[in-house]
Design a protein that fits this description.
This protein is an alpha/beta fold and about 650 residues long. About 35% of the residues lie in helices and about 20% in strands. The strands form 6 sheets. The protein has an 8-stranded parallel beta sheet. A 6-stranded antiparallel beta sheet has the order 17-18-19-26-24-21, with no helix packed on it. It is globular and about 85 Å long. The relative contact order is 0.10.
């Protein structure tokens, strides 16, 4: 008799995160949930991870409403699971005890059955309280051990013996759980290590403990790893559904069904019904832009381990900021960042810390700007890293962040932080004139300014679709091309989908109005930038030398500053693209060199823009929430 393998369908959380950067409207995928249930599937991952914040950041939707809608669609008997990041719950920032407890309470309230809970550093101390809260809220707690392969040539933790020691610490801490998951978010752990780890775990735990294994196809070895896990004694594997399967996500359930034919294992599904459900899902997602990088195996991932969910999240943000052509540079810089950072597992939030630091090393110069999350990690503010970080990086982080290394419990530090927790969130809500509900408190604590913007009705839409409704009239009014063609253009080894249609050029799903003409001889030395905001015509850009002025005691907070062409003051320019998060200096206020004027959010990092001279702020040209580009003039400093 064949052994039936349990499955969890990740399509509606990890699938969305790994393919669309987690940017999916709820109403668009509910028919696929209904079809999946009709096909006999009953266990779904539906939220948490990046699919909490992303609904407020990019979809202008409420994640709690989404959970309610999925529960209503899936029915009362479906097992709905979400993903939690230990004491970070559903964000990049760690939280105090009251928010961790509130997380479990609210997810239970909004229809969730179980929570898979991990710590990216494999610091068991970060799983004790969060696991207790999940269990006491009446949810099933699946505790995780996070896996990855180190870049070739690197050594430090991440052996099967290291993972078993983590498992023993979980058992010794008496953390309540119903299942243990070995989670490889980057898909880089080699099959032999997967086999050895799960085989040792099964021997330690006996046959009565439920074991799950999770991986991605990003490195092209997921089927091999799943078969190794099955042979070692795992009970459950995670699979996805087309069109969000393979590539950066989990393998497709139909692919795994095929791989198990003729073996002693089976999934126990009606493959015909599964394929019918996938057709419904494909139709649901047919107008979403499918990033090219989400659809393929990346053989360089083992050298720069990047989770599928982080890869497309970051490439989507780089698309937003028109810097995708530099992705390969950032990816190449990750290996050093991993090695010198203490070998935390490359899974959110640590994977984002790695990417942010690699990003800074590329855009600001090696180690000139320590990313806050990465710096706090090597200094001990997220717990103990698997191996000691490079002492030089610890020194730089301490100097740049003005923090001392610590071995205190992060949760104790957070409890003492007056800017965190329920009390601080209530204060913010009252100041903004918003209702003080438990849901609003949690949104405020985990999403900060963007959560408040959503609650005030000022949320932004950042969902990428192949066609945009708000540009349809412009397309119809635009001059028609005689031929519509789609091309894949490769720039610096990165593919970009480009098409010409209805008077527009569409690049990676974003439409731009264009007008093409031959440049006159007298224009040859004048740079011209085409408008991309839907207005026809061109605008000339005044050529000027840009002088980057240092701020404070290091280079990390540089702003781009240049003299006005008429000599009347200094232009304050954005040093990098992003979202203007806060305006610190008011119009007309007096500032001194080194004062913070603006804060930009780029790649989930906050970058301060400083004054390069003494004077008065004039002509602030942007408002919080505006998308800005490198070199955009934000204000003028006058004498």
């Amino acid at each position: 008799m064949k052994k039936q393998i349990k499955t969890m369908i990740t399509a509606f959380r990890d699938g969305f995160q790994s393919v669309y950067g987690a940017r999916v409207f709820t109403e668009d995928f509910l028919p696929a949930v209904e079809a999946a249930v009709a096909a006999g599937l009953n266990h779904f991952e539906v939220g948490g991870g990046a699919r909490f914040q992303s609904l407020y950041f990019y979809c202008n939707e409420d994640a709690f409403d989404m959970m309610d809608a999925v529960r209503k669609t899936a029915g009362p008997s479906a097992e709905l699971q979400t993903l939690a990041r230990g004491i970070n719950v559903v964000g990049l920032e760690s939280q105090p005890r009251d928010i961790i407890k509130l997380h479990a309470k609210l997810f239970k309230k909004h229809g969730i059955t179980s929570i898979r809970n991990f710590d990216a550093l494999n610091d068991v101390n970060n799983l004790i309280y969060s696991g207790k809260c999940i269990h006491e809220a009446g949810l099933k707690h699946e505790v995780c051990i996070t896996l990855m392969e180190l870049p070739p040539g690197a050594t430090g933790a991440h052996t099967s013996d290291f993972y078993i020691e983590v498992l023993k610490k979980i058992l010794d801490a008496h953390i309540p759980f119903y299942s243990i998951c070995f989670k490889d978010a980057s898909g880089t752990a080699v099959p032999s290590k997967v086999y050895d780890t799960i085989k040792k775990a099964r021997k330690l735990l006996g046959n009565g403990t439920h074991l799950s294994f999770h991986t991605h196809e990003t490195a092209g070895i997921s089927i091999l790893c799943y078969k190794a896990a099955l042979e070692a004694g795992v009970d459950q594997i995670d699979l996805s559904m087309a069109p969000v399967s393979g590539g950066t996500c989990q393998p497709d359930i139909a692919t795994m069904w095929h791989a198990l034919r003729g073996t002693e294992y089976e999934l126990g599904v009606d493959i015909k019904k599964i394929l019918e459900a996938e057709e419904v899902f494909k139709e649901c997602m047919s107008d979403y832009f499918l990033p090219p990088e989400a659809q393929k195996v990346e053989p360089l991932i083992p050298f720069s381990p990047m989770p599928g969910g982080a890869l497309t999240t970051n490439t989507q943000m780089m698309r937003d900021n028109n810097i995708l052509h530099r992705y390969n540079e950032v990816a190449a810089a990750m290996s050093e960042v991993v090695e010198r950072g203490g070998f935390g597992t490359s899974v959110t939030p640590v994977s984002q810390f790695y990417f942010q630091q690699a990003f800074n090393n590329v855009f600001f110069g090696p180690w000139k700007k320590i990313a806050e999350g990465y710096g706090k990690m090597v200094l001990g503010y997220f717990g103990k890293t698997p191996a000691p970080p490079d002492p030089e990086i610890v020194r730089l982080a301490g100097e740049q962040l003005n923090l001392e290394p610590t071995d205190r419990s992060p949760i104790d530090i957070n409890d003492e932080d007056p800017s965190k927790g329920i009390k601080a969130a209530k204060k913010t809500l009252r100041e903004e004139g918003l209702a003080v509900t438990e849901e609003n408190i949690f949104i405020t604590a985990t999403c900060k300014e963007k959560g408040i913007a959503y609650l005030k009705g000022e949320g932004k839409i950042g969902v990428r679709k192949k066609t945009e409704e708000d540009t349809q009239k412009e397309r119809e009014a635009s001059p028609k091309f005689t031929k519509s063609s789609t091309y894949v253009i490769t720039v610096n080894e990165m593919d970009h989908e480009v098409s010409l249609s209805n008077g527009q050029i569409i690049v990676n799903g974003i439409p731009y109005q264009i007008k093409v003409r031959e440049r006159a001889a007298e224009e040859k030395n004048t740079p011209v930038v085409s408008d991309t905001d839907g207005k026809a015509g061109e605008r000339e850009v005044v050529q000027r030398a840009v002088n980057l002025s240092p701020s404070k005691s290091q280079d990390s907070g540089k702003s781009r500053v240049s003299n006005r062409p008429d000599g009347k003051g200094n232009l304050v320019e954005a040093p990098l693209p992003g979202i203007l998060l806060r305006i610190v200096a008011d119009e007309g206020s007096k500032v001194s060199e080194g004062d913070v004027l603006f804060i930009i959010e780029s790649m989930k990092m906050e970058t301060e823009i400083y004054a390069s001279a003494n004077g008065y702020i004039k002509d602030i040209s942007a408002k919080p929430g505006d998308q800005i580009k490198t070199g955009d003039v934000l204000a003028i400093i006058t004498a």
